[in-house]
């Protein structure tokens, strides 16, 4: 009988990290149920162009990311990697993780006015 | 921290990862530590094997919950932006708890604009050392900023490219960062960068600065030890 030699393989940090990626919805669940569960947990929702029309972000307190209209991600609806997804953030935590050009401009304008007063 | 932009332009890549603990939104997460069940949290001084920054928090029924390893409990996932050239915008703070940045006051006027001398009671700019960082005025100079070329224990910072003459009472800030500076110390909540300390700590470089006032100035930082950057693939 032949001898099987097991040679252990060292995984790279990149491979370990890729293995940590969430597997998505389990079989038997509908996509809508899965996405609504993610929304209840305030997760960022990424949807491909086919799934976007089925999602009503405003009704769930979500807003579409506008500065980056396209993100590369797995669609939370059909769980397919799509380089042209859209991202939806829960509105109340959006400013923890993103800023907009309008906000940065307003901050700078306010600072310029404050400095002018101190002259 | 806020995800701000990509150095190369284009679209961010967002992935949902399993986490080893319940992380806040807007903090750096690292490669899973040995034996951990998911991505690990960063520390105030370490971004070694950086994966990305979280874009959402762990929540259940709108209430923050602890990470659970109970069988049948919800598996906790968080979205992470993983581009290795992602630039993050971190608020400058003056303490571990997130106090505002120290506002210094000119105590001795400088007519040639090459030195800025503080007032007794200001923190010594040579300890923690702000040398090779940036000084900028918030009054009297129209917000002008310069790179610091030396500091002394006599509350003096020196620049080579002169400011206009300053006057006693002008307000200014000094930080240990300029474009390209490496090393961050984060606040306790891991979201803001401490500029009351010299530039040291987590592996990240300063890409740009938004020099406003004591409570609304930001550093733009790029992780320098990213697991997907190609420099630390082993």
Walkthrough of the structure:
The complex is a heterodimer of chains A (119) and B (234). Chain A is an alpha+beta fold and 119 residues long. Chain A has one domain (27-118). Chain A contains four helices and four strands. Chain A has helices at 13-19, 31-40, 94-97, 101-118, and strands at 45-47, 62-64, 71-74, 81-90. In chain A, strands 1, 2, 3 and 4 form a four-stranded antiparallel beta sheet that branches. The radius of gyration of chain A is 22 Å and the shape is flat. The mean pLDDT of chain A is 89. With 234 residues, chain B is mostly beta strands. Chain B has two domains: 2-88; 93-223, no CATH class. Chain B contains no helices and 19 strands. Chain B has strands at residues 2-6, 14-18, 28-30, 40-41, 50-54, 59-60, 63-64, 77-81, 86-93, 104-105, 115-117, 134-137, 145-151, 156-159, 171-175, 182-184, 193-194, 202-210, 218-223. In chain B, the strands form four sheets. In chain B, strands 1, 9, 16, 17, 18 and 19 form a six-stranded mixed beta sheet that branches. In chain B, strands 10-15-12-13-14-11 form a six-stranded antiparallel beta sheet, with no helix packed on it. The radius of gyration of chain B is 20 Å and the shape is elongated. Residues 60-64 of chain B have low confidence and may be disordered. At the A-B interface, helix 1, strand 3, strand 4, helix 3 and helix 4 of A face strand 1, strand 2, strand 5, strand 6 and strand 8 of B.
